[in-house]
Automatic annotation (TrEMBL):
Keywords: ATP-binding, Cytochrome c-type biogenesis, Membrane, Nucleotide-binding, Translocase, Transport
One Pfam family, short name: ABC_tran
Origin: domain of life: Bacteria
Matches recorded under InterPro entries: AAA+_ATPase, ABC_transporter-like_ATP-bd, ABC_transporter-like_CS, ABC_transptr_haem_export_CcmA, P-loop_NTPase
Keyword Nucleotide-binding: yes
Family, per entry: Belongs to the ABC transporter superfamily.
Protein name as catalogued: Heme exporter protein A
SMART domains: AAA (SM00382)
Domain ABC transporter residue range list: 1-199
Record organism: Roseibium denhamense
Keyword Lyase appears in the UniProt entry: no
């Protein structure tokens, strides 16, 4: 549970969330993604349709790859395109890619017609990333985004994140590693001190 947590992020900026293991970084992202309900407080996205909750303008890129192993790579992307219909804020300018274009860019175009179950861990991670490129949403919520990526793929991811920011998007990412992005701000989560008292019997 979070207490006294307030922050704002401007378009074109990545908010990098840090803190010890178990402090709540992933829980914060899942709350922003609408996967965990707020008990109090508000989340607001300026410039968006006020009739839609903010999480409808966000992509969530978590620890799990969120792909269906029995479907082909292209079928997975087609499913996510239909599920995550575009929800764009007024200030968001990014263009989407075709599924094949996204796969080619990420170096897995040759897997397009394979069942996803045949992909390696790194390839599944890149397929999960491709979901962000085929449907435009201004907010990327990314939990340890460089996990399971080799150095070349990690740099490519950072380039894509910078391009998303340059298009007016924003990113909230939880990470233990330094991310070399063009424009960042930091949010460090810390545990509240616990007061304890001991009563002694006479």
């Amino acid at each position: 549970m979070f207490q006294d947590l307030t922050f704002s992020v401007e378009s074109g900026t990545a908010l990098v969330v840090t803190g010890a293991n178990g402090i709540g970084k992933s829980s914060l992202l899942r709350t922003l993604a609408g996967l965990v309900a707020l008990t109090s407080g508000t989340i607001r996205l300026d410039g968006a349709d006020e009739d839609k909750p903010p999480h409808e303008f966000a992509h969530y890129f978590g620890h799990q790859d969120a792909v269906k192993p029995a479907l082909s790579v292209l079928e997975n992307l087609g499913f996510w395109q239909s599920f995550a219909a575009p929800a764009e804020a007024e200030s968001y300018l990014a263009q989407t890619m075709t599924p094949i274009g996204a796969l080619d860019l990420l170096g897995i175009g040759h897997t397009a017609h394979l069942p996803t179950a045949y992909l390696s861990a790194g390839q599944k991670r890149r397929l999960s990333l491709a979901r962000l490129l085929v449907t435009a949403r201004p907010i990327w919520l990314m939990d340890e985004p460089t996990s399971a990526l080799d150095k070349a793929s990690e740099q490519q991811l950072l380039d894509l994140m910078d391009r998303h920011l340059a298009g007016g998007g924003l990113i909230v990412t939880a990470t233990h590693t330094k991310l070399a992005l063009a424009r960042t701000q930091a949010l460090h989560l810390e545990a509240q001190p616990v007061a304890a008292s001991i009563a002694e019997d006479d």
